[in-house]
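Budget justification, computational time. The allocation requested in the original proposal was used primarily to generate structure tokens for proteins on the priority list. As evidence of use, we reproduce two of the resulting records. The first is shown immediately below.
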Amino acid sequence: MDKWKRSARLVDMTRILMGAPHKLIPLTTFSEKYSSAKSSISEDLAIIEEVLSREGYGTLETLTGAAGGVRYIPKINIEHAKKVVEQLCDHLSNPERILAGGFLYMSDLLGDVDLLDQIGHIWATVFAKEKIDAIMTVETKGIPLAYAVAYYLRVPVIIVRYDYRVTEGSVVTVNTVSGSSHKIKQLSLSKRSLQEGSRVLIIDDFMKAGGTIQGMIELLGEFNAEVVGVGVMVDSPATEKLVDSYVSLVKVTEINSKQRRVCVELGNFFDVEGETNEEN
């Protein structure tokens, strides 16, 4: 096979690395594919690392030794993240999105693959330092968000159901109270879907008082699982939250059905990231 030109190597290596986030790839894999010395591959990786870091796409992590290699760690810079969330705020501030009960129509946003990809990239940045075994969400609107995050973190998605399904096999079920309506509802999870002691990231699209998320936390307790974080796309106003610790991208401060007004601002994600940057 003809030896690859350096420009071609750089393009192909970047494609491979960014297409498999968090996957450790031995340097010999690249060396053998491109018929190049490991020293040349290392120089190529340094160039790729420089560009990824400068443009805010992430970093490369290199591990030495016999079991070593390189892996792509997705990250998004705070400026880019702010632009994405500001666009999300603009969409959500449209009064035509107001639904009965103080909810907002978001199905079109949750079907926007470009927006989902960028949100997934943001969440992967927020929880990059956590060891995560699985991502949990509740059916149905949180599912696209969960998979967007799972792509970048390379972990499975676990879906909590409101109703028991025969195809789920044996399930664990908990009762939870809706924080807004105070109605009791059931949340179920297949026993086969999660190993005991797993570290789980909860992702949801919309949180009012947090009853559903609190129910998922209680459900994880039945598996002796650890909640490593909670990510919410939209945090809606409520007199009292049932969940103490969470990271939100957008905060809705007012939904006025009579005056057809929606007030939206940046979520606490930017407060968390600001504190992190100051520490670093």
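The second record produced under the same allocation is shown here.
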Amino acid sequence: MSRKEVVVSNVSKEHDNPIAELVQVACRYDSEIILESNNRRINAKSIMGIMAFNPSKGMTVNIVAEGSDEEEALDAMEKFLVCE
């Protein structure tokens, strides 16, 4: 299991449809990917979960990935959320 804490950048400014795009990034990987913030845990591959989670600028998020490609998944999720 890999874990990384990031501060979300302005994803709505950088991406046309940030919620759908974030789910698409997560779905590229076989690993389970969970986002955590303020005692909430959601599956990053769930569009409804991401909509309810609503990652927004300045929010601190823990990305947790577990599986065969967890490091790659973690890096991709981080790049998306911090808009690199």
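A brief technical remark on that second record: Residues 2-81 form a domain with the Histidine-containing Protein; Chain: A; fold (CATH 3.30.1340.10).
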